Amino acid sequence: MSASLDNLFGIHTAALDLWQRRSEVLADNLANADTPGYLARDIDFRKALQSASGQGEGLALAAPTSGRTIDPAAQAADALAWRVPTQPSMDGNTVDAQVEQAAFAGNTVHYQASLSFITAQIHMLRTALSGDQ
Amino acid sequence: MSLFKIFDIAGSGMAAQSLRLNTVASNLANADSVSGSADTAYRAKEPLFAAIHRRELGQPRSEAEAEAGDGVRTVGITESQLPVQSRYEPGNPLADADGYVYGSNVNPVDELVNMISASRTYQNNVEVMNSAKQLMLKTLDLGK
Question: Which UniProt keywords apply (chain B) (predicted)?
């Protein structure tokens, strides 16, 4: 276990951030399911997580331009992509409600998985701190 | 915490769909309305939706945030341009000089389809809101 204090939960905090951001994007797609010309979007999770964990191409820590901290929303937005529609629609809307709903449900499970990993880590640390009591 | 933003997004979707249900109810209620001239006859109404981008809401903190969506809004209500039906009913008190009354151009089949579509999308938004609420509650329980 690598328990340097500022990196207790490893990749899971960044993953949590991204799942949260993705659920926002998917919620936006579902809210615009009947908007003419709206193009559905999604986050390329692999790309976003690579850049969050510093394994992506380019610099791991982009210099913050305006804000005080690194903006996870901005990192995630770099990985925002348009969804490729499975079937055309007359009003140019590319939201497929079933696809979005499935993605949202999957995203919820992933979010909870990340939460479970963090909880397990907390339990482990608590056990280590309290000894065998 | 950006999960709160999902409430706004899903809320805007629910508001838009309930407005759509409202127009459907109005159209169905007025399907048999008659009028004394073609200009004043009831025409089927339908809301026009557009995506909200954060840029329109004020100062985005970054270019990425400006691109991010923020729900849906109604830009206006359109009226169907289909011709209205005219009927010869000289006994009708609303009839014009030639004895014609003008009905609505509401197509009940269109309205029922709209109603089903609106209620499904409304349900989708409710589900999104519920999921976001559950995730927030689970996040509060973190480490227990």
Answer: Bacterial flagellum, Cell projection, Cilium, Flagellum
| Global pTM exceeds 0.80 | no
Give A69-118 pLDDT, tens digit per residue.
445 555 555 678 888 888 888 889 999 989 999 999 999 999 999 999 99
Q: DSSP secondary-structure letter at A95?
A: -
Closest CA to B53 of B3, B9, B118: B9
Mean pLDDT of B18-27: 95
> B86-108 b/e with 16+ CB inside 10 Å = b?
beeeeeeeebeeeebbbbbbbee
Chain B residues inside the 8 Å CB shell of A111? 135
**Inter-chain residue contact A31 with B16, CB threshold 8 Å:** yes
Residue A12: partners with Cβ closer than 8 Å, 6 or more residues away = A114, A117, A118, A121
Q: Which residues of A53-75 are buried (b: 16+ CB within 10 A; e: fewer)?
A: eeebeeeeeeeeeeeeeebbbbb
d(CA B115, CA B135): 30
